[in-house]
């Protein structure tokens, strides 16, 4: 059996976009910088993310089972399983099976239930897929929905701002009661601030907020969740992991604005990755 327990390993299930800084092209370097071996499970291949006017797309659903069969034959074990964007009900089912197959007693499962933003589900996400995502969330130890996704998971009506913190904590707790031990609702607008809402089993709810800077950019959620997954696998508290992730996302946005990087190109995290490595 191959375990290599001297180094932490996370299996990362997400798409591969060749251009635009998101998904696996974000997770691989960030996990590596945090001294975690990233083991990708590609769900699809894009030439660039779908925020660009044109893109090439190749669905990898039919190959995922064969891919994972070889990991089973090798007896691979992982310290973490981290799931990101999934493009179909079939992929959600494959990931659920993978978790049951590879989750050992010490394997941490992190689910980023990527379903929508700005109050709307993505066009590809049908009501059936949203329902299936709830089943996947039940298998996670840590779940990191944005506000839109939290509303979808709990059946609440979305609003952009004006949430009371008691409402936010109640929503996070409702998601936690689905099965996860920890939930972070990301990117809640509170005036000039963005707040992350943290609910953790056996602990009081917490809030991590930072000043809003720059423009909204694709891929920031991928940066945030990758850091949370890495830090949690290394044993950090959920609050500390969220604070570190939020701090780095803010640093990335500021640097991207400074360099006038086009919004659709995401955040130039490469320019400040050395800073993340040094942070405790």
UniProtKB/TrEMBL annotation:
One of its GO terms (molecular function) is pyridoxal kinase activity. Gene3D superfamilies: 3.40.1190.20. GO terms for cellular component: cytosol. Keywords: ATP-binding, Kinase, Nucleotide-binding, Transferase. It comes from the Bacteria. Residues 82-259 form the Pyridoxamine kinase/Phosphomethylpyrimidine kinase domain. Its EC number is 2.7.1.35. InterPro entries: PM/HMP-P_kinase-1 (IPR013749), PyrdxlKinase (IPR004625), Ribokinase-like (IPR029056). One of its GO terms (biological process) is pyridoxal 5'-phosphate salvage. NCBIfam families: PRK07105.1. PANTHER family: PYRIDOXAL KINASE (PTHR10534:SF2). This is pyridoxal kinase.
């Amino acid at each position: 059996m191959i375990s290599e327990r001297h180094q932490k390993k996370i299996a990362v299930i997400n798409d591969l976009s060749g251009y635009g800084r998101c998904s696996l092209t974000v997770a691989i370097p960030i996990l590596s910088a945090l001294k975690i071996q990233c083991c990708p499970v590609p769900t699809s291949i894009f030439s660039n993310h779908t925020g660009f006017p044109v893109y090439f797309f190749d669905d990898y659903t039919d190959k995922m089972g064969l891919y994972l069969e070889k990991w089973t034959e090798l007896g691979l074990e992982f310290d973490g399983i981290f799931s990101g964007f999934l493009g179909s009900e079939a992929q959600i089912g494959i990931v659920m099976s993978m978790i049951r197959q590879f989750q050992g007693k010490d394997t941490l499962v992190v689910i980023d239930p990527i379903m929508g933003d700005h109050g709307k589900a993505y066009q590809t996400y049908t009501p059936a897929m949203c329902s299936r995502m709830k089943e996947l969330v039940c298998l996670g130890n840590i779940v990191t929905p944005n506000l839109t996704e939290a509303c979808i998971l709990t059946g609440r009506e979305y609003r952009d701002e004006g949430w009371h913190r008691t409402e936010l904590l109640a929503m996070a707790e409702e998601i936690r009661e689905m099965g996860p031990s920890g939930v972070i609702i990301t990117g809640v607008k509170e005036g000039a601030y963005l707040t992350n809402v943290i609910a953790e089993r056996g602990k009081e709810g917490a809030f991590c907020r930072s000043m809003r800077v720059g423009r909204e950019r694709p891929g920031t959620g991928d940066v945030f969740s990758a850091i949370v997954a890495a830090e949690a696998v290394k044993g950090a508290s959920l609050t500390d992991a969220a604070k570190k992730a939020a701090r780095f996302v803010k640093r990335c946005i500021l640097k991207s604005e400074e360099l006038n990087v086009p919004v659709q190109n995401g955040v130039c995290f490469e320019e400040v990755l050395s800073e993340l490595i040094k942070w405790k």
